[in-house]
Design a protein that fits this description.
The chain has two domains: 99 residues, 3-Layer(aba) Sandwich (Rossmann fold); 113 residues, Rossmann fold (3-Layer(aba) Sandwich). It is built from nine helices and 15 strands. The longest helix has 13 residues. It is globular. The termini are close together. The model has no long low-confidence stretch (mean pLDDT 91).
């Protein structure tokens, strides 16, 4: 059997606006009982909030249908027996880490008992003080892991393009010399985790709007990658030396493509 990985932002919706035909396309796969996951780099919404958002779009799902960077980060922390963490994520995402010991947050500038510093997209909450606090914690805790909840460069909102967490992580790497552990796209391990959740199905397809984070990254993981011309996509993307396996005007055309190619 084949399986499908759906990106969310830019593929199913842009901000609060649904992509026309997205719900019908996803529901076609659900009715056909085709294995699927929703794969997203968002760290500004919990899985419960994502379930509610898809429900509003007319798509039924459960939290088990989502692989997000916080989920992958949990797995990493548990695998490496890490419990003391500094958390720089939106409040709604913090609940994903309730089983760990929070020893630092946005307001703490020094602490020498940190095993990992976890950073997600804070959006409008980013300030110089927060960035400097993270910098100080990394300097004071050379043993701590820097964990990035994705490395997305930017995403498209209803107001236009907006920086994501990737540029912030690059700033911390540059300032401290610490290399981040990425638990979201474009890390190959993130796609491998999705493959494992799908019981290592063959012919897994990823559909996304990010030519680097969705297309090249999933191809590097051995998946088939479909680029949509919605979300952050621009025609310039196709001149970057990355060749999608297919290009669709939108996800609405995915069922027809699937019937012809899979």
């Amino acid at each position: 059997m084949s399986a499908i990985l759906f990106d969310l932002d830019g593929v199913l919706y842009e901000g609060d606006r649904a992509i026309p035909g997205a719900a019908d396309a996803v529901n076609w796969f659900i009715k056909k009982d085709i294995p699927h996951l929703f794969l997203t780099n968002t760290s500004s919404k919990s899985r419960n909030a994502l379930v509610e958002k898809l429900t509003d779009l007319g798509i039924e799902s459960s939290i088990e249908n989502f692989l997000t960077p916080p989920v992958a980060a949990q797995q990493y922390l548990q695998k490496h027996n890490i419990s003391n963490i500094a958390l720089f994520v939106p409040e709604v995402t913090a609940e994903e880490f309730s089983n760990f010991e929070l020893v630092a947050d946005q307001n703490i500038t020094t602490n020498e008992n940190i095993d990992a510093i976890i950073i997600g997209d804070l959006g409008d909450q980013w300030t110089f003080n927060i960035m400097n606090n993270i910098f100080r914690l990394l300097i004071d805790n050379p043993q701590a892991k820097l964990i990035a909840l994705g490395m997305t460069r930017y995403w498209k909102t209803t107001k236009g393009l907006q920086l994501d967490v990737g540029p912030m992580i690059k700033a911390f790497e540059y300032a401290t010399g610490v290399n981040a552990i990425v638990t979201g796209k474009p890390a190959v391990e993130f796609f491998q985790a999705a493959t494992a959740l799908l019981d290592n199905q063959e012919n897994i397809v990823m559909i996304g709007d990010d030519i680097r984070g969705d297309i090249r990254a999933s191809q590097d993981a051995g998946l088939t990658a479909i680029q949509v011309r919605t979300g952050k996509f621009t025609e310039i993307d196709l001149s970057l030396g990355i060749t999608p396996d297919a290009i669709l005007d939108s996800i609405a055309l995915l069922p027809e493509w699937w019937k012809k190619n899979m």
